[in-house]
Design brief:
alpha+beta; elongated
């Protein structure tokens, strides 16, 4: 997943997105829905503002998954 973010998240927002993901991992709360806003750069060079809502859970191996 992080590879995807590094490829598309605008460089100005990359640090805050990374910090957000690390905080979610540190304070994991099952069933919590979190929101995140950031910019992406599309392959055609256009920028878009993204507003996501993420639901975090753990898979069978105990790894945090995002949906």
């Amino acid at each position: 997943m992080w590879k995807y973010f590094k490829e598309f998240v605008h460089p100005d927002d990359l640090r805050s997105v990374n910090q957000y993901i690390n905080e979610i991992v540190d304070i994991f709360c099952p069933g919590k829905i979190s929101e995140l806003k950031f910019k992406i750069i599309r392959k055609d060079g256009n920028m878009r503002d993204i507003h996501t809502q993420c639901h975090f859970s753990k898979d069978i191996d105990g790894k945090i998954t995002i949906s």
